[in-house]
Write a structure and sequence with these properties.
Elements lengths: L2 H29 L6 H9 L5 H4 L1 H13 L1 H10 L1 H21 L6 H27 L4 E2 L2 E2 L9 H25 L2 H32 L1 H8 L3 H4 L2 H18 L5 H21 L2 E3 L3 E2 H4 L3 H28 L13
Helix pairs in contact: 1-4, 1-7, 1-8, 4-5, 4-15, 6-7, 7-8, 8-9, 8-13, 9-10, 9-12, 12-13
GO molecular function, one term: oxidoreductase activity, acting on diphenols and related substances as donors, oxygen as acceptor
Family: Belongs to the cytochrome ubiquinol oxidase subunit 2 family.
Membrane topology: Multi-pass membrane protein
Length: 333
């Protein structure tokens, strides 16, 4: 068994779970400006109040796994993306504090609304910038970062930053469609389709731009026969978009969220396939970046215990708080 590949899969799973779970509650903050009514905002926040902090467990798992198993990637990526990652953490702090204080504030509630909006949008934007900077490659010499502090600031990374903001907004909007009803749900349905079209545009542009700005990915796509194996992916994206349109017209409750998850999964799968077998594009492979096998096996034992526990309490939390959230339900405290 190749323990390095197993650990790469665990970290990939952790990051995907974070994007999906924390993505939709960040998305709620992003769509907040479209719904200025205070009671509706209370209701929107109550849809994720019991689970939002647990969603970030997956980010911790991915970061801890990276530190333990791929220390070269951890040190290099942290050095290269220090500023956007610090910006992301600052925004997550503002978002978390606004969650805790907004429900108790009176005169300053509008300020905490702004903190929630800015923290959610900022965290998504900085995460997207980090993704774009990672995709375009990080210069590595002798296992250390060899670039400058602002190498991450490029048109491509700004594009991916905006793309992730739209992705999270769509996830958040579709989550709210599933959790609300009545007039609020009808207005949320009207936002889903424009967000889907904008996201589709970002998918097309990023998919075309990625191989153009990273020769290693272009070579893997076109010289290794990968292009034809990935050919069904655009078709599946088009199918998701088609059924999203039908779901919005039919005022479906849960289908839009499932289709949004499908779009995220397809994009994530294409990303992983394009990067393989590199831990840092065009610089360091997974095996070059990995810790000694003994360290990987030791930490894998701990992961085998903790990951089922995380999955269990995450599943239980969503099961207990399933169903619609209505005005008059218990508020978050």
């Amino acid at each position: 068994m190749d323990v390095t590949v197993v650990w790469a899969a665990i970290i990939a799973l952790g990051l995907f779970m974070y994007v999906v779970l924390d993505g939709f509650d960040l998305g709620i903050g992003i769509v907040f400006p479209f719904f200025p009514d205070e009671k509706e905002r209370d209701l929107m926040m109550n849809t994720v109040a019991p689970v939002w902090d647990g969603n970030e467990t997956w980010l911790v798992l991915g970061g801890a796994g990276l530190f333990a198993v791929f220390p070269v990637v951890y040190s290099t990526v942290l050095s290269a993306l220090y500023l956007p990652l610090v910006g992301m953490l600052a925004c997550l702090i503002f978002r978390g504090v606004s969650f805790e204080i907004r429900a108790k504030a009176n005169r300053t509630k509008h300020l905490w609304d702004l903190a929630f909006i800015g923290g959610s949008a900022g965290a998504a934007f900085f995460q997207g910038i980090a993704l774009g900077a990672f995709l375009q490659g990080i210069p590595v010499v002798d296992g250390s970062f060899a670039g400058d502090a602002f190498g991450w600031l490029t048109p491509f990374s700004l594009l991916t930053g905006l793309g992730l903001v739209v992705t999270y907004a769509l996830l958040g909007c579709c989550w709210l469609v599933a959790k609300t009803e009545g007039d609020l749900q009808r207005r949320l349905h009207r936002v889903v389709w424009p967000l889907t079209i904008v996201l589709l545009g970002f998918i097309v542009v990023v998919s075309l731009w990625t191989p153009l700005q990273e020769p290693t990915i272009a070579q893997r796509w076109f010289d290794g026969g990968l292009f034809w194996r990935l050919a069904p992916v655009p078709l599946l994206v088009a199918i998701c978009v088609y059924f999203m349109r039908r779901a919005v017209r039919g005022r479906h409750h849960n289908t839009p969220f499932l289709l949004a998850l499908g779009l995220v999964l397809l994009g994530y799968a294409g990303l992983l396939v394009s990067l393989w077998p590199y831990a840092i594009p065009s610089s360091v492979t997974l095996w070059e970046a990995a810790a000694p096998r003994s360290s990987q096996v030791f930490t894998l034992v701990g992961a085998a215990v903790i990951i089922p526990i995380i999955i269990a309490y995450t599943t239980l939390g969503y099961w207990v708080f399933r169903g619609k959230v209505r005005h008059g339900d218990a508020h978050y405290h």
